Structures are given as structure tokens and as C-alpha cells.
Amino acid sequence: MFSKLSVVVASVLITLAAAMPNGTPPPPVTPPTSNQCCSSVVPSSNAAASAVAALLGLDLTGVLVDVGLSCSPITVIGNNCGGTTVTCDAPEKEWGGLIAINCIPITL
């Protein structure tokens, strides 16, 4: 009986490990706090968003939010943003402005 239990436990652990690509969970979705100017804003399921995220080692599987691509922080009120003005979760030092998650449009 003990050997059957150990086989079942091992099978469950292997299945869980295989379900997480590269063993990394998706980034946490937190309330957006950073005003950004992004060249485009797309759904997280978009191929371009997935490709940029993969370059950074992020897995967006199951993350159902809008994603900003090629973003820079807005630091001055009235900044002339040639793209889409949004507020996002965008840690600059981790993602280098390539991607921002959970983007919400800023309406004035």
C-alpha cells in the first residue's frame, strides 16, 4: 500500500511540475500605479505580448489583462505621449520598458 501511495504522490508532483512552463509562475497582477506612455496596448494573449514576455522570462499564460509594449514613464504633467497613455504595473528595472502589465487607459 505504501508503494502505491508513493507512486500516486510522485505522479501528482510530476504533473504539477509539467503544468508550470520553465517552473516559473506568471507575474503577479497588482493594481496599476505607474503612468506610462506605450507604443501599443494589446491583450495579454496577443502574440507580440507573449514574445516580449518570453524574452524577459515571463509567462503570461492565464493572465487576462491588457499589456503595454515599449513603454516609458510619464514624469511631467502634459507630457506629449505619441502612443497610448495608460496606468500600469511596470517595474522599470526588471522589464526595462519593454512591457507593462494590467494597463488601464488614462482619460482626461
Automatic annotation (TrEMBL):
Main location: secreted
Compartments, as annotated in UniProt: Secreted, Cell wall
Molecular function (Gene Ontology), one example: structural constituent of cell wall
Keyword Secreted applies: yes
SMART domains assigned: HYDRO
Matches recorded under Pfam families: Hydrophobin (PF01185)
Signal peptide: 1-19
Gene Ontology CC: fungal-type cell wall
CDD domains (alphabetical): hydrophobin_I
Coiled-coil region(s): none
Keywords associated with the record: Cell wall, Disulfide bond, Secreted, Signal
Subunit structure comment from the entry: Self-assembles to form functional amyloid fibrils called rodlets. Self-assembly into fibrillar rodlets occurs spontaneously at hydrophobic:hydrophilic interfaces and the rodlets further associate laterally to form amphipathic monolayers.
Family affiliation: Belongs to the fungal hydrophobin family.
Official protein name in the record: Hydrophobin
